[in-house]
Design goal:
- The structure holds two protein chains of two kinds.
- By secondary structure, chain A is an all-alpha fold.
- Chain A is 72% helix and 0% strand.
- Chain A is built from six helices and no strands.
- Chain A has helices at 3-24, 28-48, 52-77, 97-119, 134-142, 146-167.
- In chain A, helix 2 runs antiparallel to helix 3 (52-77).
- Chain A starts with a helix and ends in a 5-residue tail after the last helix.
- Chain B is mainly α.
- Chain B has one domain: Helix Hairpins, CATH 1.10.287.3510.
- Chain B is 78% helix and 0% strand.
- Chain B contains three helices and no strands.
- Chain B has helices at residues 4-24, 28-53, 57-87.
- Chains A and B meet through helix 1, helix 2, helix 3, helix 4 and helix 5 of A and helix 1, helix 2 and helix 3 of B.
């Protein structure tokens, strides 16, 4: 087993474990912090995939900006625990109706996806050679994808105005 | 030898974890976090496909997905804050005013 495979399984295990713990936590602050760990592992996987730019923006934008926003809101609302009408320690499969149904659906989804992916006959080995330098990405982003890139700025403007309007305290 | 299929299976597992989180958790913030897990699972398969096809386009789509995720998080959290002001609760079961 090469070092690439070792790193893949290491990062993959960290990502899956951290994500499982995210949805297993009752306290949202721990969920957010564990999700940052999961994003760090994903960023390592991006490095293994020859995508250093994606790895860096994963850390800066996701772990740095979006997760801090989540953390800020969790602390602002100061509502650490879920208020549910059943015992939180029961297994998800034993909880009332829709939740049990949802957990079963997610299990079916995972089985189906893995089954479909392992049915494929081709090995899907990666071609050699790195093709995705940051310069290539930048050139492509500002030529081929120039229009979507500009539309993105409108999207962010709309999101900014929307967030301000929604979170504003209403005047009496 | 790590192949494209390895990454796709990992992405499928992460996506299913996100789906399970949306169904199982009863907290609006954790539900938004589960959506982020799903978006990241999709990002992983975009980057893996980009690497397999030898093109930079996979990473550019990731860039756009991250922008949409940032916008979604900002608007979603603003909605969560204003819902919390109304009901003093983050349980989605307590927001049933539009239920028929």
């Amino acid at each position: 087993m090469g070092s690439e495979a070792t790193l893949f399984y290491l990062f993959g295990a960290v990502a899956v474990l951290a994500s499982l713990l995210v949805i297993g936590q009752r306290n949202p602050i721990y969920s957010v912090l564990l999700l940052i760990a999961s994003f760090g592992a994903l960023s390592g996987l991006y490095v293994l995939l020859d995508a250093p730019f994606a790895a860096v923006i994963q850390i800066i934008v996701y772990a740095g900006a979006i997760m801090v926003l989540f953390l800020f809101v969790v602390m602002l609302l100061n509502a650490p625990h879920e208020d549910t009408d059943y015992d939180e320690r029961t297994h998800p499969l034993l909880r009332p109706g829709p939740m049990r149904f949802g957990a079963v659906l997610a299990l079916v989804l995972i089985v189906e996806l893995v089954w479909a992916l392992t049915k494929g006959s081709e090995s899907g080995a990666f071609a050699g050679g790195s093709t995705s330098s940051v310069a290539d990405i930048g050139r492509s982003l500002f030529t081929t994808y120039a229009f979507p890139f500009e539309v993105t700025s409108i999207l962010i403007l709309v999101a900014m105005v929307g967030a301000v309007v929604l979170a504003r305290r209403e005047e009496q | 030898m790590v192949t494209l299929n390895h990454y796709l299976v990992l992405s499928a597992i992460l996506f299913a974890i996100g789906t399970a989180g949306v169904f199982v958790r009863r907290n609006l913030i954790t539900i938004l976090l589960s959506i982020e897990i799903m978006l990241n699972a999709v990002n992983l398969s975009f980057v893996a496909f980009g690497r397999a096809l030898g093109a930079a386009d996979g990473q550019i789509i990731v860039f756009f997905v991250m922008t949409v995720a940032a916008a979604e998080a900002a608007v979603g959290l603003a909605i969560v804050i204003s819902l919390f002001r109304h009901r003093e609760s983050l349980n989605p079961d307590s927001f049933t005013a539009l239920k028929w």
